[in-house]
Amino acid sequence: MHTDSSTGGADATLARREALRRIISRSPVGRQADLVHLLGKAGHHATQSSVSRDLRELGVAKRRDRYMLPDESAPALDDFAAVSAFVRAISTAGPCLTVIRTTAGAAQSVAIVLDRTGWPEIVGTLSGDDTIFVATRGAATQRRLITRLHEKFRV
């Protein structure tokens, strides 16, 4: 008997995330709706919002047209190379907020790469569909961050 793992507590969430890992590692899936369907076939009821949350928690990135599990052994430079084509613009919104515009659907993938850098300038990131907000502690750290971003993304 399968439980409703979108609302079934911690054990159900862990089971759903493990099933999600298996699905992503075994087949090229590029849409959350397809992941919801495949999870359902595997006996895990999920909503698109729970799948979105799971993808974020698992550190899954969307590269080209499919979801990819994080590869902890890949160097950060390769991660930047994989997502640099998605970055369209970098601008500021005050002394502590940097805005990165990406192609549609790529912001989460770019934000994951930024989060993994461990750069001391970054306090946190928030991504939508095509926009990332990067918080810094102040104007000086923002300037250092923008220099790094321009070097990595070449925009």
Please tell me about this protein's structure:
The chain has 155 residues and is α+β, with helices and mostly antiparallel strands. The radius of gyration is 17 Å and the shape is elongated. The protein is 47% helix and 17% strand. The chain has two domains: 60 residues, Winged helix-like DNA-binding domain superfamily/Winged helix DNA-binding domain (Arc Repressor Mutant, subunit A, Orthogonal Bundle); 78 residues, Gyrase A, domain 2 (2-Layer Sandwich), CATH 3.30.1360. Strand 5 and strand 6 form a beta hairpin. The N terminus is likely disordered. The strands form two sheets. The protein has a four-stranded antiparallel sheet, covered by helices on one side. Strands 1-2 form a two-stranded antiparallel ribbon.
